[in-house]
Amino acid sequence: MDEPRPLRIIHCFRSPVGGIFRHVRDLVEQHDRAGHEVGIVCDSSTGGAHEAALFAELEPKLKLGLVRLPIRRAIGPQDFAAVKQCYLHIKSLKPDVLHGHGAKGGAIARIIGTVLRSKGLPVARFYSPHGGSLHYRANTLMGKAIFTLERLLERQTEAIAFVCGFEQWSYQTKVGEPRCPYRLIYNGISDQEFQPIATADDAVDFAFIGMLRELKGPDVFINAFQCAERQLGRPLRAAMIGDGPDRDTYEKMIVRHGLGQRIKLLPAMRVRDAFAMSDIIVVPSRAESMPYIVLEAVAAGKSVIASRVGGIPEALGKTSPALVEPDNPEALGAIMVNALIEPEWKLKTMPEPEQFYAAFSASTMAREMLALYYQHIENTTPSEIGE
């Protein structure tokens, strides 16, 4: 049987920060290694020095290039210019696959892909929500509008790839059963990340690692930290590592609570460096899809305490005592104390390593994604072009 031909793959997403960017980087690395040509189109107005360094590392693997254009979070008139620029660039590359990530990236990729197909280019269009629009409530005006758009775009989609069961369930509940093919393909991390990371000599008790925005719960972490101190009756130390639109808000909150000497606020850094700062990683998010920080921390041998949201229970185990209901600082603080003082807490609560690797490796994710691509490229016939 002949080997399948190499593919030309373009990933389109808005903000090059957080889980979406991590997901795309892993796919780029795996698929480049397998002999495919890959490119990225994303926003130019977000991300800082940390993201710039990641792009610099990734660019040699981007055989179809990296293009960054202004792509705003909100829908507006500026989108016409962004879509036009994206279209002209993508058209010149003649991709086999256009994979949109997140609501904005998914819409842009599928609209451009549909126009290209109308002009005779048999590009296959794929979409991964990554939470995004699915965080909206179905009974709000904005939610109804966004879910209607999601429904309409299904007609311009070869397949949807969900990164966790919770995301698939949310889509089915809020948007409806997809009218296009879909598959569950878990986020995965690379083999080298399945290595223990020792803590530094000056390690703190707890670390929050992520974007400094309300959705991720930095305020919940700060309040839970205070609860843990009260329960133990002694001061503790923590690090909050990350950047984001609400950084100043949380810096003021730390000072207002008198925690300036005990909670360090640090900029985004390589995750291995962040993990060296503590053996206990706290993920107090109010909503998630399948956050990489949980997968990375477990693979690095860390204790993880997290909100019972999104796909986190699928990673840690649905009955794990490391899970807490979201937006509950008192309950979170109590689990933080248990993790700190209870002998063998990590051994009793974290997933079994071999099963975890089998479910959440990047090689598995990339292989299943390629299979999805090939399936729908093969199913694209000339009669479908120009729909």
Describe this structure in words.
This protein is α/β, with parallel strands linked by helices. The protein has two domains: 8-188 and 361-384, Glycogen Phosphorylase B (Rossmann fold); 192-358, Glycogen Phosphorylase B (Rossmann fold), CATH 3.40.50. 43% of the residues lie in helices and 14% in strands. It contains 15 helices and 13 strands. The protein has helices at residues 18-33, 49-58, 78-93, 102-118, 141-153, 165-174, 218-232, 247-256, 271-275, 292-299, 312-316, 329-341, 345-349, 353-360, 362-378; strands spanning 8-12, 37-43, 66-69, 97-101, 124-128, 159-162, 182-184, 206-209, 238-241, 263-266, 280-283, 303-307, 323-324. The strands form three sheets. It has a seven-stranded parallel β-sheet, with helices on both faces. Strands 8-9-10 form a three-stranded parallel β-sheet. Strands 11-12-13 form a three-stranded parallel β-sheet, with helices on both faces. The longest helix has 17 residues, at 102-118. The protein is globular and about 70 Å long. The two termini are 32 Å apart. This is Glycosyl transferase. Keywords: Transferase. Residues 192-340 form the Glycosyl transferase family domain.
